[in-house]
C-alpha cells in the first residue's frame, strides 16, 4: 500500500503536499499551492513523468557520451527530479542546486531522500542573486544549466531578462547547454519573448514542445535550449523522435519565424509569466 500524503506550510504561506502516485508504486508528486511541481520515482529515478521534464531529460541524454559525468547547475529545485535523473544516468556528476525555500527542500529530503552517494549540493537563496555567490571555479565549467524557477504557477520576472541570461551564460563550458522551462498560454507571447531574449544572449536556440502547445493552441510548457556555440544539428531529429508525442523541435529560420518579432526582454520590461487557468490542475477522478 502506498504511503499516505504528507504536507507542510511553507514560510511563504504556500501549502506543499507530497502525495503517492496512484498508478505507479514508489512514485510521488510534489504539489505546491495547488500546482504540481515535480514527480519522482524513488525506485527508478531515470523514469521521468512530466512531459517537459522528459524533454529536458532527452537533452541531458544527448550531451557528450552516454553515462559520462557532467557538471550541472539547477536554478529551482522542486523535488530534485532532474538532479536525481543525472545521478542515475550519469553517475559521478557534480551538481549544484539553487532553491529559494530551504523548508521546501528539507520537506522533500525528509520524505523523498536523495541517494547517499549523490554529489548534489543545495544552496539557498534567490536564483539570480545566488549566482554571484557560486564558486569562481564554476565560471566557464558548467555543462548544463537548468532554469526552472517558479513562484507557485508563475515564473518571476527577474529571471526572464537579457541581463539574467547574460549572467547565466558566463557559467557555461564550451559546448554547454542551457535548458529553460517556460509556461505560457494561447498565443505564446511570453514564450516567444523568452526565445528572442535567449537568441540575444546565446549563439543558438531551439524550442521543444508538444505540437499543439508550440502552435499556441493551449496553455502548456515549452522547453527552450540554448548554447554559446551551434547546437548539434543531429540532436534535432533525435529529440523529436524521442517524444513525448506529438513533438515539435523548432530551430534556425523556423525559430525566427516562430518568434515573429517578439521583443527582447530586459530588466526594465520583464513581467511574470501568465497565470494558468484555475481549472488546469483540477483532478478529475
Sheet with the most strands: spatial strand order:
7-6-5-8-9-11-10-12
Q: Roughly how many Å apart are the termini? A: 19 Å
Instruction: Indicate the CATH topology.
Output: Rossmann fold
Structural class: alpha/beta
Number of domains: 1
Outline the fold blueprint.
Elements: E1 6-9, E2 15-20, E3 27-32, E4 35-41, H1 51-62, E5 71-75, H2 81-89, E6 94-99, H3 102-111, E7 120-124, H4 127-131, E8 142-147, H5 162-169, E9 172-184, H6 189-201, E10 204-210, H7 211-214, E11 220-227, H8 235-242, E12 247-251, H9 252-259
Parallel strand pairs: 5-6, 5-8, 6-7, 8-9
Antiparallel strand pairs: 1-2, 2-3, 3-4, 9-11, 10-11, 10-12
Helix pairs in contact: 1-2, 5-6, 6-9
How would you sum up this structure, described in words?
The protein has 285 residues and is an alpha/beta fold. It has a single domain, classed as Rossmann fold, CATH 3.40.50.150. Helix content is 27%, strand content 27%. It is built from 9 helices and 12 strands. It has helices spanning 51-62, 81-89, 102-111, 127-131, 162-169, 189-201, 211-214, 235-242, 252-259; strands spanning 6-9, 15-20, 27-32, 35-41, 71-75, 94-99, 120-124, 142-147, 172-184, 204-210, 220-227, 247-251. The strands form 2 sheets. The protein has an 8-stranded mixed beta sheet, with helices on both faces. It has a 4-stranded antiparallel beta sheet with strand order 1-2-3-4, with helices on one face. Strand 5 (71-75), helix 2 and strand 6 form a beta-alpha-beta unit. Helix 1 (51-62) runs parallel beside helix 2, helix 5 packs across helix 6 (189-201) and helix 6 (189-201) crosses helix 9. The radius of gyration is 18 Å and the shape is globular. The relative contact order is 0.13. Mean pLDDT is 93; it is low at 281-285.
